[in-house]
Write the structure tokens for this entry.
Amino acid sequence: MKTIQAVRGMHDITPDQAGHWSRIEHAIAEVFSRYAYREIRMPLVESTRLFHRAVGEATDIVEKEMYTFPDRNDESLALRPEGTAGCVRAVIENGLLNTPQKLWYSGPMFRYEKPQKGRYRQFHQIGAEVFGYDSVEVEAEMLMLNQRFWKSLGIEKSVSLQLNNIGDSVARANYKNALVDYLSGHKESLDADSLRRLDTNPLRILDSKNPAMQSLLNDAPALGAYLSEDSVRRAEQLNSMLAAQGIAVEQNDRLVRGLDYYNDTVFEWVSNDLGAQGTVCGGGRYDGLVEQLGGKSVPAIGFAMGIERLFLLLEAQAFAALPGNDKPDAYFIVAGKELQPYAFALAENLRNARPDFAIMHNLSPGSLKSQFKKADKSGARYAFVIAEDEVANNRVTVKDLQTGEQLQYALQDDLQELLAGL
């Protein structure tokens, strides 16, 4: 019978990896707490209509990447391809917009696209959405928060900030007309993807990875020429605030992001260490989305970062900046099945006395030689050896697997001494 494998583009996170994932998530959650963000949890499944209205009919996500299916009532549902739309739906539905909100979330997202390094069909994001602040200060604070993530993970030298201002809806509409006029005069030079986008989402052509398209765009109209005075002022103020905090900024006039709901400030944190999938974190302001989805008019800004890509960056550094590991502190070596009750009692007493002390108890003991090999392989610092002599005299033998030193402790009198020395 053929072995069943994971669905293409879906990947397992094995125990060797999961501990690093947990530490990444914990480090990020710690930074969120320092900025008083609160966690929100949304469903994996939403109405397909939510993403059509929020993300945009002409985006790649809606046109060709969503996992959609009818339920038993023939309503079209979708596995969430991103987190912002669901979060906006949740804050509207739960009446959370009477006061400003700083929220964060994490979990799997789903997009049907070509799997490659750092990009999967089920991928994991940590995101944040802030509602109720229209000032540039919230944008600066969010980018400073991002910078603090990179410092806490030890990758601040591996990522850099790209920034752009795409203006308000009027500016984008005027610019879109000018861009379409220019590109329509060069249709013979457009690739198939750009030809398709010319009629549906022309701003996305700016983000094309095709070098020929980038060369053609060198002579295209500049978006900055269509910005309002307010948008220009916001961009200048944000750059000034970031410079004062020592955050280097690369102005990327072709950065537009792939979703329809953005306005004014958009940003990406990118790395040259990830090949083609260089974006680690991205986001921007979306002041019209809450009202577009049926809520009141509320300014908003958000971002999302891919955990798989963060993992790749940290893996290249052997996770040196992440404290802790998944290795047990002690490995119990038991000489026979009849000695297991004694070993069980001792293990539980140690766990009660030292909740921070991780014990791997071998529940299927073989020969002492094979158990010592397993103890070495586990990475444990200590082997607790329990044989007939130890049980008869209420003792335990502790071997330091790094130094080879071996001591015996009488549990009646020496348990506290034993714990103090570990």
About this structure: The chain has a mean pLDDT of 91.
